[in-house]
Amino acid sequence: MKSIKMVRNLKTTERDGNTRLYFEPSVLEEAGFNVGESVKISIQQDSIILFRAPDEQNSDGIISRRLRRGWEKARPYFDRSNAEISSVLRAKERIDIIIREGHITVRHERSFDLTLSEGMLQGEELQKLRLLSLPSGMGMATAALVNTSLYEAVGAIDMWPIALDVYRFNFRNGISLMSDIKHLHPAYIPQADVVILSPECDEFSALGTQKANVATGLAPHYARLIWATNCNAVLIEQVAPYFKSRAYHQLRTLLIASGFNRFYETQICAHDFGSVAGRRRGYAVAFHGDINFVWPTPPRIPDRFRKTVGQVLGNGWEERGQWSTIENSPMEKLLAKKKENNNFNADRNYTLVDLDSKRISAVISAYRRTQVTSSYLRHPDGKHWRQFTSDELGYGFLSLPDWFEWPDGGYVSETRKVELIGQGVDCTVLAAIGSELAVSLIGEKVRAKREDIEPSLLQNRSGQLELIF
Prior knowledge:
This is DNA (cytosine-5-)-methyltransferase. Keywords: Methyltransferase, Restriction system, S-adenosyl-L-methionine, Transferase. The active site is at residue 201. The chain has helices at residues 25-31, 83-88, 140-146, 161-170, 219-229, 246-257, 309-313, 330-340, 390-397, 414-422, 427-453; strands spanning 6-11, 13-15, 18-23, 38-43, 47-52, 61-62, 64-66, 75-81, 94-100, 103-108, 129-134, 151-158, 175-178, 194-197, 233-238, 262-269, 280-287, 324-325, 352-353, 376-378, 384-386, 456-459, 465-468. With 469 residues, the chain is an alpha+beta fold. The strands form four sheets. It has a 13-stranded mixed β-sheet, with helices on both faces. The protein has a four-stranded antiparallel β-sheet with strand order 2-3-8-7. The protein has a four-stranded mixed β-sheet with strand order 18-21-20-19, with no helix packed on it. The longest helix is centred in the last third of the chain and has 27 residues, at 427-453. The two termini are 39 Å apart. Residues 116-126 have low confidence and may be disordered.
């Protein structure tokens, strides 16, 4: 199991009456396959194996190329359908694709139960706190915690290939699990000390339906995957209404039943921690056992010392992005709508901001769809405006660490970058929470260790004190 680099779970399709088996660029790149490389296919009784061929004459085919508009280079792709594959895998059944270096194994999806299960160790023993992200997105929360030098990423779960592409490009030592969590076997889950959980939010966000009592049915799956890690703490981040929902109540109930009996809950706005971007989120920390925890205290920042938009953007702001005129444009219509509708006239809405502005609206995944509830930069001439770039939103407003990079090849477009960032977190807030969480866990370990090794003083039968080890 230590050699597994990634697990992909999906449903097979059909082509010309046969089961179709295809490997996406993300899967092939993780296995180290390149465009044009010769490969062999081994058909086993209950699995199919793809591996490097010794030479072209002894191969069953080559890795194809996929090139899309905007990509700087082609990426590997493999697509095959025949009777041999159909003899092992049925069409429209779920499969697990197990990725190792130079070796891909395909087999039937493993079944599981919904009770506590032992996780399987992935990777080498780590000195830092081991962190699993569920779902990971592109890894902004992971980056925020790893950047504290207190955590080591051991795994990520997400079903969006491009998100895991970005994650894998930055975190190479753990396992990536590309799967719908409802179909993921716990045997693939690595051991972890901390799980950061960002549950589904479509039903609870201000842009969604906000059904406070809705239960999505995912709580048992979140819980069983958390249990598989044997972790000591779970950090949950989501929009505030989620924490009043039936979905959260179900998750909380299951975690409490398994020994997570200390819950700490709060709401934090990133602007209170010095961020120019406002971003109010609910947070919960659950501990396995009686562990004390305190939420980070926001610093007192006088208004005159707060960063401005111009300070975040730095030099070159005028050359970046695409400027448009306000007059006779969609932006003019949005501003008119804002004036007409009291709902958009509140102080918390900052549609056009200036270089000396000290607050912008929260960055959302749909930021590129110009809308009144997002923030855009107004030129000092008052006649032009533009959207903020992905770098400005990520590295600037949300404090993404500067070592975090986008994959080579140009296949992550600017629109996708902004979408991924909008699904992320404010790294300043996560780092502050993560530091307090680490102190609680490390302090508990130190206390337990001292109790194990410190001698006790007891009286013997003669009334004298003696050391008991």
